[in-house]
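Morning run. Coffee first, then this:
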Amino acid sequence: MFLTITDAAMEKINPILKAEPGRRLIMMYEDGVSPYSHHGEVAMQVSFVFAVICGDQPLEPWFDETIDLNIGPLPIKGYSKDYMVPNMVLDVKKFGGVVLRGDAGVIDDTPEIRDETKATD
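And here it is:
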């Protein structure tokens, strides 16, 4: 499994990721599980989130696997691979939103980029 984040998509992520040293990117299926996932009805939608967390924020037990990314390994919730496909791309759409697509087409037409550096367990 491989994910490419385009330069245009990185421009959307970098203001959060580069705001302070030591931040890292994670990818999660929004399921309400982990301190970085929203709870309630929002969490029950089929969607992916690219979240930025601080280097000292926990990954385990939720983010138990990684996928290959063009900028390095990307922590994910292992069971979320069921919703992923090979050769994924996070890109920017014509009017500025982001889209996650793969060989089979669009996976999520509204993935979220979110600052979770203040999230707690």
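The chain has a mean pLDDT of 90. Good start to the day.
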